[in-house]
Amino acid sequence: MAITAKEVNQLRQMTGAGMMDCKNALVEAEGDFDKAIDILRKKGQKLSDKRADRETTEGSVFVRTSADGSKAILVAFTCETDFVAKNQDFQSLGNEIADAAMAHQPADLEALRAIKLGDLTLQEKVTELLGKIGEKLEVSVYEQLTGEQVVSYIHSTGKLGVLVALNGVGTADVAAAGKDVGMQIAAMSPVAVDKEGVDSSIIEKEIEIGKDQARQEGKPEEMLEKIAQGKLNKFFKDNTLLSQAFVKDAKLTVQDYLTSVNKGLTVSAFKRVSIG
Length: 276
Description:
By secondary structure, the protein is α+β, with helices and mostly antiparallel strands. It is built from eleven helices and ten strands. The strands form four sheets. It has a three-stranded antiparallel sheet. Strands 6-7-10 form a three-stranded antiparallel sheet. Strands 3-4 form a two-stranded antiparallel ribbon.
């Protein structure tokens, strides 16, 4: 059947898809707009499947914090190119995803993708935009954090985000301190808050490395364990947040800095997400 330019443009306005895609969908749907929209969505899904092996190393991190500051979420919405990451439709959907995550507090990434945004699930909205943009899009990370006060930090590129949960806040204004610690985490990428939080597999690996280094230096076998423990303590100092030298004043540890802001102030947990 004959499809008019007006109808093609109308479908394009409704979906954002390309002119030829809209025309072909209308022809296939015999002028039925609902069917044509379904066809375009299916095209997006096929495109998604075709590009499933592509890497999404670009994108943006989005954060939301509750009104009382005790809870926050972080979402990484990723794509293939920096050009798409700066696209207004991409950014708008990323913000919509973050709003939905904050409002619904889904348990995990799978539950987040299943949230309804109007008539579509969140994943279907991503697929719909994929059909329009033409490259792989993915909601790749979803994190939640709670504490007495949770502070967020997003690096200037928008590709690295941090959530910091602070305890021992009291009546102090700790927002600036939280931002400082967020910058610390972004720059230094600690493995845990303190040594108690370091995974046992990491500890075992560091001890083995320490022993091997000492052995290669010709140290006696009976001294290897003690030397390795010393190296492990150095690892804790350099790689656990509260023991790290504070980036704004290397004379202080991060915990020293927090104590100077408010006695008893500390970090209970953090999340760090980097795209690419």
